[in-house]
Amino acid sequence: MARAGKTFYQAARLLPAAVRGDVVQLYAFCRTVDDIADDTTQPIPERRDALSGIAVALEMADVDALHTAGWWLGCSRRRLRAAAILVRAALADLQQVQPASVEGVVEYAFGVAGSVGLMMADVLRARDEGTAAAVALGCAMQLSNICRDVAEDARTGRVYLPASAVAAGEVYRALQAGDPGAVRAVCTATRQLLARADALYALAYSGILTLPWRTRWSILAAGMCYREIGLEVGRDVRRSWQRRTVVSRGRKLQLIALAGLRLLLPRFWWPRPPAAWPGLLSNAARTEARRLGVAR
Predict the structure, then answer these.
(1) What is the pTM of this model?
(2) Distance CA 191, CA 120 (A)
(3) pLDDT at position 76, please?
(4) Mutual angle of helices 180-206 and 168-177, in 10-degree steps
(5) In angstroms, rounded to a whole number, what is the distance separating the alpha carbons of residues 207 and 199?
(6) Could you tell me the domains of the chain?
(7) Of 112, 160, 253, 281, which has the fewest beta carbons less than 10 angstroms from its beta carbon?
(8) What is the distance between the alpha carbons of residues 170 and 154, in angstroms, rounded to a whole number?
């Protein structure tokens, strides 16, 4: 975690020891699934077979098989189902199909990250009414990632910006040739996703109080640090194509301190949940969320 997920690592250090180990193991599971999907040294059929085997074990709730394979997820049915959604989303991502719309991007984010938020809520023992906020936080973080990694993803043949706003060819023309029209289209599409991410962050923050009090600081700090990535990208989208956008250690420490202050003085800043929830999700993601008991 310290090497591959620096923002998560800083936030995890604020967690009580009783749950920190479980969170790190959950992070390891999610990271390994991601690494299997992204391992370009292995043929796609081999990666597909590996992920399919994990997905089947999760969907059958075959805890013994999972433990034998070295996977740790606890025994919660909801956690296993959410993990299966994550793995199936990683499988679908092997096809490298550009999402058609903003809703399609959010649906992808729900699969690969909203599911992680749901597992985290389960690990941290959030109240049931906080699960929607957990899903929103995962989706928001993934949208921040997508906006930050436009150039990096394009180098691997992936475009996650919505096709309704910018075609894949325009993304490559913007990055490789600096075509002015293509650059404007990519910047507009990026800011569209950042706006959706902000609405999801607002929902996520409104659910922090459903967590046990000892875990709130870590999760709020993680959300604020990740949102800062999107804010940096939005200030100069083109600059984010030249080098990976990062939040400095000093700024992270400021945000961690601010998160603590907000928890001490919640009535001066606490946001109300957006009225559009669960309209912030796509139709398919909303249907899956209902199955998991997240959205009505």
Answers:
(1) 0.86
(2) 28
(3) 72
(4) 110
(5) 13
(6) 6-291 (1.10.600.10)
(7) 253
(8) 11
**Exposure string for 181-194, b = 16+ CB within 10 A, e = fewer:** ebbebbbebbbbbb
Question: From residue 27, how far is each of 14, 151, 220, 271, 277 by CA, in Å?
Answer: 15, 25, 17, 28, 27
Q: Nearest Cα to 39, choosing from 93, 78, 80, 85?
A: 93
Query: Residue 283 is encoded by which pair of tokens?
Result: 């139709």
Q: Which of 175, 195, 198, 197 is nearest to 185 (CA)?
A: 175
Amino acid of residue 99:
P
Residues of the chain with pLDDT under 50: none
**Strand, helix or coil at 179?**
coil
Please tell me the predicted confidence (pLDDT) of residue 245: 93
Rounded Cα distance between 77 and 83, Å, is 10
- For residues 188 and 166, the answer to whether their CB atoms sit within 8 Å is yes
At residue 78, the pLDDT reads 79
Q: Are 157 and 95 in contact (CB under 8 A)?
A: no
